[in-house]
Design brief:
The chain is α+β, with helices and mostly antiparallel strands. It is built from one helix and three strands, in the order βββα. β2 and β3 form a beta hairpin. The protein is extended, with a radius of gyration of 23 Å. The chain starts with 28 loop residues before the first strand and ends in a 12-residue tail after the last helix.
Amino acid sequence: MADTPATQADPHFVPIEGTMEAPIIFFEVCPTFGNNGGLINLMLATGLIDSAPHGKVASRVKAVAHLRMTAAAAVNLRDTLNNALAMGMPVQKPEGRTN
């Protein structure tokens, strides 16, 4: 029987339970925020359109989630959002020869 070398563990990998069961939260605005003794709070909301009498429509804003986090978690969320936004930025063509 051949010896197979053990796979090195990735020190940056953190296993996360429940990834497939976690809810998906869609929001369009963050209308309120606060800081209560270091506990950061945000409300996430989205716009909805309802039918109204006489063939009209009425729009409203509905809260979809309340986020509560420590300052460290808020910094982590901010940095993660910045990284995700940077991934979607167009890349300028670098100057120089093409291969």
